[in-house]
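re: that chain from earlier
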Amino acid sequence: MNRFCLVVAVALLGMGCAHKSLDVATLSTIQKPAFVGRILKDAGPKATVFTDDNSFREGLKKLEPAEGNRRMAARMLKGLPHYELSDGLRARTMLRLGTTTPFQNAADPSQVARTLGIFLTQDEADSEPNYQALSQLNVDSIIEFVIEEYGIRSAQGKLRFWVSGHGRMFRLQGGGTLWKRSFYAEEEASTLPTIDPFVMAKDSSLYRNRIHWVLDTVAQKFAEDLSPGKRMVVAAPAQEAPAPVVLPPANAPKPTSIDEDPL
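^ sequence. v structure.
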């Protein structure tokens, strides 16, 4: 398995596995691509915050760690629906490609979504959409971004947000993979403010911002892959960096109520 790591200010990005590069000659044969973002069924969110280490267990009060994880995952899904997560990776990559040939001729994303019917459900099926339906839009190739798993974990008392999946490009007629890249992206803990999971459970913007930053890193690498021989300009992140929510010191006074539901 070939992998490499890219360290940036926000995320640690490991990419590799099933990697097929796109060359300039092949790209020149593409006239009208269609971009699609989707997410696999049961991809997540996966929360293991309260079972990874003991850092936050005291705050659970009477809740069992497994139940705390389940409630955290439910809050995450409510704060960031599956469709917004998967389509966000598509939108961020398209933004970086801008007017680069042939991507300036890409099919309109809203028409692609309507044709494939992916606006109709939050959870996509395990099988891929019927891409042949896009032939009515005169599309000649598909660029697909798939989120396979995502979630949040705890490492030495710090929350770590992560996403894994793959991107690929293939011809609509005749098949044939032109490009493929698998990825695992996770925040690099030493550069990040500490977030209290109990505060995050009540403020979904903290979770959304952190996941968006992870997706920004993946989108940048995808844009570079899809523009062989060209220097891609890093687009500004779609979200501002989240304000730190600092955990209370170890000797802070304990809450007076032990019955209050922390999540």
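The mean pLDDT is 78.
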